[in-house]
Every structure is written in C-alpha cells, then in structure tokens.
Amino acid sequence: MVASSYQSGMRLDSRPLGALIAPYPYPVCPGNGFVMYQDEFSESELRAIRAIVLTEDYQRLRNEQTNYYMVAYVKERLEGNDFDLGDMYLRASWEAEIEHPSLVQQYQALAIAKYDAFLMRDSTHSKDWWFATIVAAELDRLLGHFDAVEGRLAGVATPPNSSLKQAISQIRSNALAHNSKQERLLPSKERTMGSGGMR
After folding, report:
1. pLDDT tens per residue across span 12-51
2. Which run of H or of E encompasses 18?
3. pLDDT above 70: percentage of residues in the chain
4. N or C: which end of the chain has fewer CB within 10 A?
5. Helix (H, G, I), strand (E, B) or coil at 12
6. Would you kindly state where each structural domain of the chain is located, as residue ranges?
7. How far is CA 183 from CA 15, 94, 107, in A?
8. Residue 190 has what DSSP assignment?
C-alpha cells in the first residue's frame, strides 16, 4: 500500500514528480504472476484472464517485462480500448526507467501506436484526445522523431487551457532544438499546473 504522496510537478510525458511513486504499483500474484490492475473481476473476466496468464508466453514474459507491460498484455488479449492500452504502455515506460532501461524506447513506441490508433477513430477534442495528441508528440520527441513532432502539433486547434498550451510550446521548442531528453513541464505564465495536469 502507498501511504501518502505529494506531487510537486510533472514531466512533459505526464509522469508526476514529487514525493510519490509513479506509476502506482499494482499487487502481483507471487504464484502465477498476474498483475491485479483492478479490485474486482467478473467470472467471465476471470476465466478469460486465467487462460491468458497460464500460457507459456505469459509466464516467460513476466520475468522479462515490467508489471504495466503485463497489464497491457492481458488487456490487449481482452480487446481493451486503444487509449487505455496507450496509457498502460506509457506507464510501463516510466516503470522501465529503473527496472529495465533497455525497454523504455520499446514501450514508448508501443504507447505511440496505441494513442495513434485511438486518435484515428476519435476527433472529439476531449480530454483524452488532447492527452493522446500531446503525449504521443512528446514520446516522438523522446525517441528522436523530431519532424514527426511538428507534424503532430502544427495543425492542432487552440488548447483549452494554459497547461496544454505550455506543454505544446515546450515540446515543439525542444524538438526544434533536437533535444530528446526528459524535461519538466514548466509553469505557464497564466497559472501554475494543478494536480490534474494534462488530464
């Protein structure tokens, strides 16, 4: 259990910064390695999950990948939605920074692919649309795909709040400078970022 936390800022890829653990650590079954990503499951979900978790593929991957990757692995086979899968791979990339640094870029690329699949079917400019658009651009920057960043952000509409405007401005300027390092989201001139961040 995580007792308490304090967020003091955020990176451009939306990872919260401060006295906290990010991503939130899910409990893992010590026997079969299933990552408990929610509190309750229906009987039909449990049957489907059991069939996935007991495969040789799952048992091999659990020793090679992060917990959030394994959540995405299960959810993909349960036909989870693309935005949620992008979120799982994004969080897996944060998790891998300490546990498996060699996997960070692989997870970032998987997150981009899922966010793009979501964006191809959604043009509502909802909170999720803005999040997927901006974070996919940031992940492209981190992967060194600097031209792709401008392609993603050049034609977007005016963001609905100052935090999103600031994020877009920073991502574009860092991409133009060919900077692929992790960067902190700076406070906007209009107001400082609240705990809600880009969501």
Report:
1. 999 999 888 899 999 999 999 999 999 999 999 999 999 9
2. strand 16-19
3. 92
4. N
5. coil
6. 11-176
7. 10, 14, 18
8. S
